[in-house]
Amino acid sequence: MPVLHYSGQTVKVDDEGYLEDFEAWNDTVANALADNLGLAPLTYDQLDILMFMRQYFRKHGFFPVIRSVCKNVHQPDDCVEEEFIDPLVAWKIAGLPRPADEVLTFLGAG
Length: 110
Known about the structure:
Blueprint: E1 3-6, E2 9-12, H1 27-36, H2 44-60, H3 66-72, H4 79-84, H5 87-93, H6 101-106
Antiparallel strand pairs: 1-2
């Protein structure tokens, strides 16, 4: 199991870079995941998006519609793409579990 090191913290991820423990996520872990993808340090707007995604996933068990994310965090309709380029990058940094193969295929990553 790969491990990331960031600001004195150790973060366990799977072979594809997804956080192993959903509950281990915090701002530092998010920045470690982002750093691993070349996007750290995260901005307040990015963290706001990620926190909404996590809350939504915790409540509903799946990724929210992208426009819904932006609307709920009071950012422009393309905020996820603008801040993270790819929704799967945001998914990974939000510490959400690896999406099903069907989702990866739908989003063009599978």
